[in-house]
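Please review this one:
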Amino acid sequence: MSKGTVYNIQRMSTKDGPGIRTTVFLKGCPLRCLWCSNPESQSFAPQLLFFQDLCTGCGACEKVCPAGAVRMENGVSLLDREKCLSCGACAPACPTKAREMSGRVMSVDEVIAVVRKDALFYENSGGGVTFGGGEPTAAGEFFLDLAEASLYEGWHVTVDTCGFCPEERFDKALKLADLFLFDCKHMDPARHRELTGQDNALILRNMGAALESGKEVRIRMPLMPGLNDSDENLEAMAQFFGRYGRSEIEIMPCHAFGKSKYQALGKPLPPVEQYTPEALREVRERFRRHGLSTVVV
């Protein structure tokens, strides 16, 4: 069976599909959304996160680093990311978990063995397994093998996707999944490229295929102040989804939960701001005026 990189397996999940679920987060994404709250999910390779505020300066990391990427200075541990191999040697040596590896290569059998631990909960709650990311479909055969193995186990399969996936692979996913949580980020191709690094032609093709497939599809929108909440974009969404008889959008308002992870990866913080409660109410009212109902998730 194939192998791939998993950066988290979240058991007892209740927000990624019906019932009690296990969500498998596959590492790697073809998009670079300005607002991404899980920056560790973007790279396909394992990465080291260094949470400086948890460091006590004990020096254990310096002793085990094979590349000389760690040095102690005035009782403070410093990381040279140019030298860092992301080998993970320092992570188990750190007593305060200031250093943490994101990403582990696993086989299909290894992932399924973890998911199987809560099979009884899926049966009793109508739950199952959800594949998220990153972008799960970007894992290629590993993702398809995981979905097929889950189907064989009799589990409900949900795919949380941005839709940027080769047509042939996405059409295979359509046959394996029961539910798609499908992101809609922006309707204008040029603006979509500015915000995510890719245009949306392939995404809209796959979204249309999902909506016509007969499978359950929930349309989700990461809602970002001043970036994708204009009346022009909302009207374009209303027109596109209206062709498929759809008008409900699950909105995910901007938040700052990923701030610490950007710092732990040595990356600049994303240029986004959160909505005030009043601003969010006003935006939801504008959705309504365009014929779209919203549910906050």
Observations:
- The longest helix spans residues 141-153.
